Input
Amino acid sequence: MSVRARVVLFLVAFGPSAPTFAQQSGAAEAGKWEIEVHAGGVRMGKPTEATTAMPAPGEAFTTLPGRPSRYVSSWYFGDGAAFLNQWAAAFTIIPRTQRITPLDPVLTGPAASSPHTGSFGVRLGRRLTPRLTAEVTVDYGPSSLELSERALGDVEASRTTFASVWNEAFRPPASNYQNVVVSSSSEIQESSGGQVVAAGALIVKLRRSGALVPYVTGGLGGVFNHGGVPSVTLRGNYTMGAPFNPSITFNDADTVTVRFTRPDRALIGVVGGGVTYDLARRHGIRIDLRLLIRANTVDTEVSATPSWRTGTPAGSISSATIPSVAFNNTGSGHTFSGPPITAFRTRQGSGWQIDTALTVGYFWRF
Output
């Protein structure tokens, strides 16, 4: 073989193609798998869309003086609160100025939502092509439903005005009931717990190579909640003796519980993007921004338990107003003797909740 032919063979074997092979070998050595740990924060969406409803008014009846009344399950909200304020407005000879503030805005408004929170998690990815990577991400963070300041104010207003309207109704100069005791209290149960977000996604690199690589991503997953839900309980009570016979006593107790619920699990969609920066061939840092899209599923339920204490001697008394309120210690023909209300859904969330998650992570390739 001539010297020239030998030189050509040498260049083919060890010439320009050799670095390309070496680069490919180096990329393969870096590995197709990637694992990451990260931490960040989640800005929780505040959806406001919902459908609302209130319990129907109680059955109408006629009091002993022949005036219209209707059965009430609670004075704190809905038709019971409206009826109580109508009754107070019916006194024209001795006007009553006190009115109850209904609990209705808490029952039908966006009273509870999740606060912004932190999160941490892991991400496992596998490179499918130079531009495409499949990944699974699991994140955890504290998560709870909290009552808004406005809702807390509405609860307090209902509590205090229950006492003021009944105190004015039972005492001179409005009336002459004896041994009047009125109370109204509230109990707020806070929620606790956490939230796991698990999602699978595809990452599309916007650059094939380089230390700094931007990308976009999208996928599906689920959110899993654990822990308790918040609730509000209002307890109102009034006891009094009849104006001309204090041995005839009336004792009514009004208990209302409001619960704010969300499902234990829900489907989410994931869209977003970010950038990776290689500190070396096998490791680097990532900044990632994602939108977590889910259905708005925060609901409000109310329960009411009216109760009254029977007394001896038996007695009844009704107001000479339209509408009329009847008190009866036998429970028969008693305005405050409507049926109990159990877990009536006053607000059902609708529309979408969009949370924004920003994380910074460190990854290794293998």
About this structure: The first helix runs from residue 3 to 14. Residues 3-28 have pLDDT under 50 and may be disordered. The longest strand covers residues 245-261.
